[in-house]
Each structure stands twice: as C-alpha cells, then as structure tokens.
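Please fill in the sequence for the structure shown.

STRUCTURE ENCODING:
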C-alpha cells in the first residue's frame, strides 16, 4: 500500500487550474461504516477565504479552502449533504481511465470504485484512495446552490445548464494535505541532483 505523508498547505507546489480542470479530482464523502460515494470533477477552486476566531493558519489571512460544485442529481451529493468531512483525491494521468469509469457509472447502481480498480482508504472518518498522488481532507464550512439570477453573463448559464440542475457549491476548510511518499521521495531526489 502506498504511504502518504502530511505536508503543510504552504508547501504545496501545484497549478490548481490544470490540476482540477485538466487532471480532474475525485470528490468523496462518507466512510466505511455509513457508506461513501465518489465522483470525478473538473470544476473547483483552491484558495483562502474568511477568518475564524482562535484559528490562524501561519501566514494566510484566510482559511485554506477548496470549493467543489455538485449537480443535484449526483449520488455523491447525498453524502456531501450529511457528512462534515469530504476529500479531494488527485491522480496521475495514468489513472484517467479509472476516473472516466467512475464518471460513467452511478454508485447507486453498484460498486463503481471496484469497477474502476481503485482502493478506498478509510481514515479521518472519511474516504480517499490509495492510488492518489495527493489528497485534500476538508471540513465543510459552507454550502449553497448556485442561483440563476447570480449569472451576470447569461451565456454561461445557457451553455452549461439546460434544466433546473444548477450545481450546489460546497466550501471546505482544508484540514490536511496528504501526498504520496513515493512522489515526495522522487521530487527530493530530483531536487538534490
């Protein structure tokens, strides 16, 4: 089993635009006891927002956060709505077929994770995947539906939504970032050369 190492959020060296929009990530909520579901996503954000009494995160002026968007008909939404913790798992491009498989089947209809060949890791009262290269463990701090009247550019609404299925937005405080130790060791070896 691949081992993960916790890193500080300030030590992340990623391009969030390509990581989310090109490589995708898996949004997962639930755990081994109550059950879980996952979905691939290519929309989202990483950043910092708001403050919190008694919580200061080193040099950040806001909480480190991840934002995900989920359509109302997605099975994963049920888990995001009831759970406090969710994860975002990022994979190497070699796992693209597994992510496509996950996007082609609903967890309502069976064990799509096994069909995709991924291995769930049950930890921190949530679920992520041992094949991931990076995992964000997040605590849900805000949830709201996108509203039609909020679209200043109506062409975006028309292009992305043809029915009453606007996404729900979930903002999660990033509690922990895990990276695969193998990748950390490879990166350190390259940097030392």
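FILLED IN BY: designer on duty
SEQUENCE:
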């Amino acid at each position: 089993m691949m081992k993960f190492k916790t890193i500080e959020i300030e030590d992340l060296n990623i391009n969030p635009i390509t990581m989310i929009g090109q490589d995708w990530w898996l949004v997962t909520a639930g755990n081994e006891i109550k059950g879980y579901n996952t979905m691939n996503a290519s929309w989202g954000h990483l950043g910092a927002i708001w403050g919190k009494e008694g919580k200061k995160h080193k040099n950040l002026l806001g909480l480190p956060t991840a934002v995900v968007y989920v359509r109302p008909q997605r099975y994963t939404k049920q888990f995001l709505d009831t759970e406090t913790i969710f994860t975002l798992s990022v994979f190497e491009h070699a796992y693209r077929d597994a992510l496509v498989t996950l996007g082609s089947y609903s967890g309502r209809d069976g064990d799509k994770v096994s069909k995709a060949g991924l291995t769930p890791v049950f930890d921190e009262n949530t679920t992520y995947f041992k094949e991931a290269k990076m995992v964000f463990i997040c605590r849900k701090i805000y949830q709201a539906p996108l509203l039609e009247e909020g679209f200043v550019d109506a062409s975006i609404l028309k292009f992305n939504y043809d029915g009453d299925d606007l996404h729900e937005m979930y903002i999660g405080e990033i509690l922990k970032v895990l990276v695969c130790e193998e990748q950390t060791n490879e990166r350190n070896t390259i940097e030392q050369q």
